[in-house]
What we know:
The chain is an all-alpha fold.
Amino acid sequence: MSVADMEYRSGRKAKKKAYARLERFGFDHSFVAFKMFLHIYVRAGMQMEVYALLREIVCYYQKAELNLFGLSYALLDSSSSVEELNFLLSVLIKVFASNKFLENAIEVVAHARRFGFQPSIRSCNFLLKCLSEANERELLVTIFEEMKNYGPFPNVYTYTVMMKFYCSGPRGRGTVDIEEAISIMEEMEAVGISPSVVTYSTFLLGLCRVGTVEIAWNFLQDLEQNGQPLNFYCYNIVIHGFVNRGELDKAMQVFNEMKKCGVAADLYSYSILIEGFCRCGNVEKCCSLLEEMENNNIKPSIVTYTSILKCLLKSGLMEMSLDMFQKIRTSGYECDKHIYNTLITGLCVQGEMDTANRLLEEMINNNLAPNYDTYKSLILGFCKVGSFEKASRFFDSLREVDVFPEPYLWNHVIYGCCNEGRVEEALQYIDEMRDLGISPNIYSYSSIISRLCKEHKSEKALELIPPMLKANQFPNIVIYGTLIDGYAKQANPRKGLMLYTKMLKIGIRPDVVTYTILVNVLCSAGSVDEAYKLFMEMESNGLDPDRMCYTSVIAGFCRSKDMKNAWRLFQEMVRRDILPSVVTYTCLIDGFCKISRMDMVDMLMDEMNQKNVCPDRVTYYVLIRGCQNLGYVDRVLQLMNEMKNRGILADNEP
């Protein structure tokens, strides 16, 4: 057995005896024994044992609420040699600092200086590091200045600690003080201390964090030219800075310069660039960088693979996405729930529901339980492709496991039910939402009201307004417009106009769609003048009529044979660069036929051909009827043959 082993074992026994004395005689009588054992460890150079014993003493002091500031006086024995006291001093500083007794650690430094001892540079640097991590800026700066004034003089590690504090703050989450960081760099040069690669990389990080990536890149190039020590981390910081700003060309310039200077790119170098190109959807560059990684025997991380997978899915490249999924599995990675969800979500967005469903089954077979995100993607996907029954099934599966979907999902399922005419089921979902304490919102009700109006059940749709108001969901312009349109289609324009008046009273201003609906309502009722007033009111309220609105008013004038106003509006429409539709032309042709202006009819038909607006079946029937009324039999036969040639009229139709 070596002497060191004997000392260690005797020390362990002595420590146990000391604790036994503490329990039997109390701390005051036992402290002498602690101190004796401590100095034995110090003389033997047993730093770990010294640290452990000092930590026990410090913890006891704290638990017993004794004054820790007096501990250093009690422990420093003047009978020990200078080397032993310096050793003990350094360990004590480390014990205090690592256990967050920072003021006590500073007091030990001050106490040592009062007795003519100088703390070691390592213990002072450790104290600075702990102060930096605790964000004790004032104390940090004080100790740093004292080191310059009283020793030990800062070394490269000291300056690097200060640089890290100013460039990244405590634990990398602080505010960057780039001016102080620049001062540190200048001071190092002034005192002749060469920065290390860590110092440089930290400074580069600070420059990038304040947004001066170009300056960081210029600084990095200066370091290259001066032959300063650089590693991939220095380059990665600048690459990351350019990627975050979306300047991928410059990021690639730094990447290529790094390789040119003989600094091998690492996993992080490639991952940063791939993530950047994934964000902008550059699939080709992502795949090129991935191939380069593999050629350089750098195995991509699961994060890198996932980024590329998301990019492929977002670009709609389903086959390549599935190939990438297989590649992840053959690369030795286990596809977790996140990977499956990423692929299922992407497939659902693209409407590839069969493949998404197959992956769900595979996921379950691999003992990966689908979560809320899985079901959400499938519900939205099936709603998107119109498979509302399957969407409802997954939606019900969520509720069976007591997971409450967000209102957004409820609304999609309600819309799906309404789209398939299952209004009663949609209303049941509304009741369930209320029972679960989830307030149906304006979109929940809007789908049901819209469907009821399409089914000519406007009265039943109107019955939903009171429960909406009770739930503090106030009908908006869309709902009022839907109801007005519903009543108009049920040949009840009066009720529609009453709703319009009510809408105005509660301060809801109509939009273009609502005005168009109202214009149609009035024109259908033969109140063309009232319709035109609304049309003018719309313009005076700063709303620009669209093609549908113009067509509605033109149709009203044509029905009443007021072709002068109809033609005027048509010309105004064209002047405003609003392209007339086939419906617009058909209304005008019908109107001019009624007043026997076939010259205008022929002009309109020629204009339709010039503007590639194809006449439809209604256009031809209107024109044929006009020709029949005027006795133009040959023209009727010509038009019917033209309809057959264009495939509008079948050969066997009369």
